């Protein structure tokens, strides 16, 4: 402590006390901020809900591949879906509820393999033997 002059230590300590004291005095406010006005929804009718379900179905990789196999682009399919009647749109939306919502599962398989490799690497770094029978 002899490298700092006594006056410099005092001024530094006083500045820190004032700074920390000022942080505790400043009020803090918290609250939830709405993302949109309450009572407003983007789904105004059953047709809109069915249209959203059909659009999500058209984003599925398997459906896009099947459409391309038949010679239909996703944009053409969206245009045709917009021109369907309410009953046809509801029937298509009901049929799309059985489709898988996730990917094809390769991400899960890759994650499991990476975890297994990490466990084996950690065991090797700890000089433990890994025996697979």
Largest sheet: none
Q: State the distance separating the first and last CA atoms.
A: 64 Å
What share of the residues lie within helices?
Answer: 55-70%
Secondary structure tally, helices: 6
How do the helices and strands follow one another from N- to C-terminus?
HHHHHH
Secondary-structure blueprint:
Layout: H1 6-25, H2 46-58, H3 61-69, H4 74-82, H5 86-95, H6 106-125
What does this structure look like?
The chain is mainly alpha-helical. Among the domains are: 46-98, no CATH class; 107-133. It contains six helices and no strands. Helix 2 (46-58) packs antiparallel against helix 4 (74-82) and helix 2 (46-58) crosses helix 5. The N and C termini lie far apart (64 Å). The model has no long low-confidence stretch (mean pLDDT 79).
């Amino acid at each position: 402590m002899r490298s700092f002059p006594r006056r410099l230590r005092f001024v530094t300590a006083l500045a820190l006390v004032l700074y920390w004291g000022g942080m505790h005095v400043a009020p803090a406010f918290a609250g939830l901020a709405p993302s949109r006005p309450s009572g407003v929804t983007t789904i105004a009718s059953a047709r809109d809900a069915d249209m959203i379900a059909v659009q999500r179905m058209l984003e599925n990789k398997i459906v896009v591949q099947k459409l391309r196999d038949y010679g239909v682009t996703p944009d053409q399919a969206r245009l045709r879906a917009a021109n369907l009647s309410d009953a046809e749109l509801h029937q298509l939306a009901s049929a799309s509820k059985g489709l898988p919502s996730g990917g094809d599962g390769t991400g899960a398989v890759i994650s499991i393999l990476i975890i297994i490799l990490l466990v084996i690497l950690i065991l090797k770094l700890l000089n433990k033997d890994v025996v697979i029978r």
